[in-house]
Amino acid sequence: MTVTDRRRDGVLVVGAAIFRDGRLLAARRSKGRHRGGWELPGGKVEPGESALAALHRELDEELGITVDLGTEVNPSPREAGIPFGWPLPGVGEIRIWTASLTSAQQPQPLEDHDQLRWLDLASAFSVDWLGVDTKIVKTLSDDPELWLP
Ligand SMILES: Nc1nc2c([nH]c(=O)n2[C@H]2C[C@H](O)[C@@H](COP(=O)(O)OP(=O)(O)OP(=O)(O)O)O2)c(=O)[nH]1
Asked: What are the Nudix hydrolase domain coordinates in residue numbering (predicted)?
């Protein structure tokens, strides 16, 4: 897979929609401005780092897991109007990929999170997602294949 490290102004954040047995992994932030909000795990791309390298690094640091990445989850062209990821107002943008665990691993909230939860489609909106994540999860919920047990 070829991934361009295009970016608009501001910080580039990357995240993973990790599915296991038809459930999506949600993580609750334990500190900072977004404390208590639920997100897709990931973090900021560091200078000189590729987006995908950053994503694998963040998942290892935050959850102690290794993943296989699937496809990028993009906003609908109508909503985005441009071929970038999801706008993070005042921050930059976030790009999201679907992912699966490479083996039978148990993600742990090692840093940045205090709770993890696996959500099926029926409970996908039962947590208080950060603003843009609500839209991302809505897009994910439109693809029933991801949620097959
Ligand atoms: N990781 C992640 N961040 C998100 C999501 N949705 C969302 O608005 N954000 C925002 C919150 C933060 O402003 C920014 C990500 O910063 P971060 O704090 O996770 O990144 P990091 O671990 O590299 O940061 P740092 O504490 O080392 O500075 O993006 C999401 O689904 N996942």
From this structure: 9-144
For ligand 1, atom 20, the nearest C-alpha belongs to 43
Residue 145 placed within a domain? no
Report if residue 144 sits inside a domain.
no
Task: State the closest ligand 1 atom to the C-alpha of 61, by its place in the atom list counted from 1.
Answer: 22
Tokens of 94: 């976030």
ipTM confidence score: 0.90
CA of 129 to the centre of ligand 1 (A): 13
How far is it, in rounded angstroms, from Cα 81 to Cα 49? 26
Supply the pTM of this predicted model: 0.91
Looking up residue 106, the CATH number of its domain turns out to be: 3.90.79.10
- The protein residue with its alpha carbon nearest to ligand 1, atom 13, reads 91
Q: Which residue range(s) make up the domain with 79?
A: 11-139
Task: Give domain status of residue 89, yes or no.
Answer: yes
Say how many Å lie between the CA of residue 59 and the centre of ligand 1. 12
